[in-house]
Known about the structure:
- With 419 residues, the protein is α/β, with parallel strands linked by helices.
- It has a single domain, classed as Rossmann fold.
- 27% of the residues lie in helices and 11% in strands.
- The strands form two sheets. Strands 3-4-2-5-6-7-8 form a seven-stranded parallel β-sheet, sandwiched between helices. A three-stranded antiparallel β-sheet has the order 1-10-9, with helices on one face.
- β9 and β10 form a beta hairpin.
- α2 packs parallel to α5 and α3 packs parallel to α4.
- The chain is elongated.
- The N and C termini lie far apart (111 Å).
Amino acid sequence: MRRFRVPAVTAVLAFQFLGAPAADAAPPPGVCHDPAPAHPQVRALPWAQQTLDPRRAWPRSRGAGVLVAVVDSGVDADHPQLRAPGKVLAGRDFHQPGGLPGAFDCVSHGTGVAGIIGADPVPGIGFHGTAPDSRILPVRISDRDVGDQGEALRIDPQVVANGIRYATDQGAKVLNLSLSGHEDFPAIRQAVAYAVSRDVLVVAAAGNAQRDTTELPSYPAAYDGVLGVGAVDINGARMPGSQIGGYVDLVAPGAKVLTTTRVDGHAYVDGSSFAAPFVAGTAALVRAAWPTLGAADVARRLIATADPARGGRNSDAYGAGLVNPYRAVTDGIDTDRPAALPAHVPAPPDQARLDEAAKEQSTSATSRLLTVIALGALVLAGLVAVVLPLGRRRNWRPGRVPRLPEQPAAVEPPDQIFL
């Protein structure tokens, strides 16, 4: 397995919503500062779901029994595709004091991540999650990522660490961290190591700060045991901004992908924040289908079954390639070893048949020779029949030969005269 890592938490939750707003949501009173507006429903089948097509894996696994922690801005448990009983647990809010649950969202970021992981399919809506039977544990560690003046807001590293440890202790088998930064905070590093040591598969976004080809640090994606995820667009090309580095283990759709928003709508969003949950949802499918595999084995399986990407195998921009939910679940599903082929024993030659073939070949050759002799005799007889009567009539005298034309006398040039 490649070395995984985790980015610092300076500019986190980088994303952008691209839809027309609808009615305002109703967050818990006094908790949300300037809550994001709601969005209308989108019925079209999104390109990301068409490309990855996790439905092909659902006959084998839908993620049942796997708890996925979304350490983010909270999750709106009232969304129609997330409100099934038991799908979104109460969770916990570490951002706001007071012991609130994490099952609400002020900015839709965590709701979008949770939808990509586990949203239920509903009639008339093309969007659905990757592992719809998985359960979501919302761990709220942030509100907005941009201030009133457009400045990037920092998340308290200790709050993030507390959320990671809480999710681990609650029995999460997959932990999604759609956040990144350039600094290595010991609190987060130690919390991630705590989760990894307890067989939690940690999935983190690679970040969206890339401006050129220089490798940037990215935490928590760069920590050991973390599966770092970059973002690609509908053409399979790296999304501008998706960071490049050895911490990129896989890529997933992250440009203009559709997901759930707070209240009950959908929106098109950008960012590696939304590529990571496609991998986290696929990890839930694998952990449900292969319950005896440890987190490291699941990570290796996701990497080994990825589809080739533009950067080639194990590139810093694309990692091992594009995550493939179907292959991740089904490859090697038949664990029986293939039966050994019997030794090849050539059959003894059929001598009678060989003799018969030789006889047929000899007969054919004789027939061809006799045919040639017979044709030659007929041609010779024809010539005799024509020439013999003609010779007798002429008493075997030669026929007239036409006279040759007279040649003019050659004119010899005079001898050379010397003066």
